[in-house]
Amino acid sequence: MGFDNKVANSPPDIKSIQSAYDEDKVVSGTILIPFILITSCFALWGFANDITNPMVAAFQKIFLTNATEATWVQVAFYGGYGAMAIPAALFIRRFSYKAGILLGLALYALGGLMFIPASNIGEFFPFLFAYFVITCGLSFLETTANPYILSMGSEVTATRRLNLAQAFNPIGSLLGMFTASQFILAKLDGRSKAERELLSPESFEAVKSADLNIISQPYVIIALIIAVVFISIALLKMPENKPAMHADVSLSSIFKRLLTNKRYREGVIAQIFYVGAQIMCWTFIIHYGTEVFTHEGMDEKNAQILSQQYNIVAMVIFCFSRFICTFLMKFVNPGRLLMLLALGGILLSAVTIFIGGRSGLYCLVAISACMSLMFPTIYGIALQKVQGDDAKFAAAGLIMAIVGGTFLPMLQASIIDNWNASSLTAVQVSFVLPLMCFVIIAIFGYRTNKVHDVD
Known about the structure:
2 domains; Growth Hormone, Chain: A; globular; mainly alpha
């Protein structure tokens, strides 16, 4: 039949067939359990992010602070990303991805357990320190888990594998929002801030202590869950994917190349303002909604709970929009799509500011549809043509950009506390900051098409 008999009668090379088969698989059966364990980390940090945003309003009432002072929760929380992203990159460069994951989980669990002494002390600062420790852990996890997932298999399926893992992040976020709504905000004492100010010192301390215990419980429970994940990863044989070390590549040369890379440099700036916009929209939707619903005659506690439910709707929209926008990227250039989404954010922010009421709240919720693809799109554009050790530290720089979630919400809170110079409410006016953030993102999207892709 035209075949060489020796070839025709030779048994198939089973290892070669298996290797070719595994290259086509997103997740090989041999590393399925390690993949599941590392993917769980994506949900764990999503939970931490979105159970924390509503705590600004909660702590404001519990400790009788103004909005600016309560926003120190976000400063402490997102400050950990800025403090630990580069150390995390250095750590995994020196040791391994597994070691980076374990250290991140350990810090996350430690921060959660620190809510126990913080609750007993009954002061604001210990909670801030606990949040900072949690996000030092999250910084390690985010800096490590993304490249670790990419390395768990063939390069052909690496992007699909990471997208699969990232799909669990918003699931964790939704669980965090649901927990905040049903197990924290719904159980806090129903007295408003003004009513608490009228309590006797003894009664106030009793109410405060009970509320702090309610806030602490979910963080302690998640710390125990993290401990189980930590032990599982520590005991299980994980893929040996230690990041390659290049002795001839100095840190100074890496940072110099990154700083002179216009696309990367502008991407980090855009990421700072995107994260700031996201945190502002998802944190102060509680304030915006509470103002709308109390104006309609609802009491403050129920207004806060209903506002958090709108926040959950915003996250659901965020999740569905991510899939839709991923599909659209087959037909629309990423930079152009980023610009169009940012323009949508600008328009919706303008309605939130100038129209207000229920219409403004609906537009504030709809902004999440525009934000859905911004973080990974900016991330991907900024890292184009960045390779090797440069990519490790470039990724850490983009994680550091999450520090935008510290100072921008603080500025918005300052507007809420101090603005009284127009017919618009202070909360409405404060959303001029997210609007400005979307302007910066739109410029980056435009330059991606018109400048960087031409260079």
